[in-house]
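Entry 12.
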Amino acid sequence: MEIEIRNLLISDYASMIKAMKAAYNNDPYEVWDLTDIKKLIKLFPEGQICVTINNEIAAVSLSIIIDTQETEITSNYAKITDNGKFLKHNSEGDVLYGIEIFVNPEYRKLRLGRRLYDSRKELCEKLNLKSIMAGGRIPNYHNYANELTPRQYIDKVKQKEIYDPTLSFQLSNDFYVKKILKKYLPEDAESLEYATLLEWNNIYYEPEARSNSVTKSKIRIGLVQWKMRLFTDLQDFYDQVEFFVQAVSDYGADFAMFPEFFNTPLMSPYNDLLEVEAMHKLAELTDEIVTKIHQFAISYNINIIAGSMPELKDGNLYNTSYLCHRNGKLDAYSKIHITPNEMKYYGLKGGNEIKVFDTDAGKIGLLICYDVEFPELGRILADQGMQILFVPFMTDTQNGYTRVRACAQARAIENECYVAIAGSVGNLPRVSNMDIQYSQSAVFTPSDFAFPTNGIKAEATPNTETVLIADVDLYALKDLHEYGTVKILKDRRHDLYKVKVNKNVN
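Predicted 3D structure (C-alpha cells):
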C-alpha cells in the first residue's frame, strides 16, 4: 500500500468523484462540478489537498483564503463560497477557510481525515495565516433536539457525554467552537440547519511577516522505553505496541522508535529449546509482526522504527530493524556488528549495508546497539547526509548501557547530527539470556551555542516504562555546518585520511 499526500490536480477529477460518491452515498447534490474544481485549483492550488492510496484518490480537503476584515465569517456556506464562484478567496487574507473534506469509507480506518487536518495546519503555518476556520455540521443533533438546545448539545459533545461524528473529530484535532451558526446549510436536515463555526489558531502567526518556507524544520521524536513483560498471545503484544504508537502519535510525533529485540517476550513458549532454536521460532513471526506495525504507521500517520527483530534470510539469522514509513514504504537495516553473546547463543550474522533513509521528516540513519560503538558507521552516514541517527538498543547492565550512551553522544557531536536511543527495562525470567534489562532512553545533540550545553536534548527516567518526546530542529544543524564554533565535518583532513565503504562485500 503506497500512501501519498499532495496537491489535487485537475487530472484527478474522475478518481476524486468516485471517492466523493462513496463518501456521500451517491448523493448527486454532494458531487462537485469539474468547472468548480478547475476554478479552485487555478485560484489556490496549494489549498486543494488529496491523499492517494496506490495512485487512487482516497480523501480530499478543499479550502480558500479569506480576509476576515472583508468577509463576514458567520455567513452561511453559500455566501462564503459565492455559490461556487469563490470570489471571497483573497491570497492576501488572514484565514484559511475549509470548504470541503471527505474520506472514502473504504479507508476510514487509516485516519486519513487527521492527515488532511494536519496538512491544513502545516499550510496555515507555512503561509503565516492567523487561523483555520470552517463551518462544521452536527449530524447527530436531530437525535437530541427534543431535549437539548444546540448549545447544550455542543457542551455535551465537548464533555464526551455525546459522540458526534463530525464535531467530536474536529474537537480532537484542536479546533474549538467559536460560534453557533443558523441556516449554514439549509438542506442539512440531520443538523436541523445548525452548524458550528470552528477555529484552530496558528500560534506561530506573525502579523507583520509572510512565510514561504516549504521545508519542515521542527521534527518531533517519540521514544518508547519498553517494559519487557510476558504476553498471553500475539494479539496481546499488538495491543501493547498499538497503545504506545497511539500515545506517541497523539503528541504529533513524526517518529516513534521501539528498542532492540523488543518482541523477545514472545520467545517464552520456546524456553525449553536451545536459545538458537527459540530465536529461529521467533523469526517465524517477524513478517507478520512487521506487517502489523506497518499498518499502525499508516493508520496513525507516524514513521515507526520497529526496534529490531530476528530475520531469517537465505538460511542465516540477522538482527534487523524495520523503518515503517507512514506513506506505506518499508525499509530495513540489519545490524552490522554482532556481539560475542549474540554470536554464541543465537548464531546471528552481520549485515553488509550502510545507508541513509529518506523520510518525509528528514534523512535518517539506523544503527543497532553495538553498531553505535564503531565511529566509522556514523561518519559514513553523516557523509550521506544523515540528520537524525536512531539507535534501538538492549543492554542488561549499567556498564553496557554506558558504552552505548557515551558512544551515541560522541556520534552526535562528531557528526553534527541528532542521535536518539531507546532501550528496554524490566525482567524476563522465563526467556533465557533475555532476563535482565537496563535502559535510559535519550536524545543527544551536537555541542554548540544553539544546543543544550550538556548535549542532551531530553532523557527518560532510568529503568521505568515510559515515553520520551523531544523536538529537534533540522535548521539548527544547517547553521551549525556553516557557522558553528567548530566545523567538524568540514575541517577533516581528507588529504591525510579517509573513511570509505568496501563495496565488494556480499
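Annotation: The CA atoms of residues 317 and 436 lie 23 Å apart. Confidence is low (pLDDT under 50) at residues 210-215.
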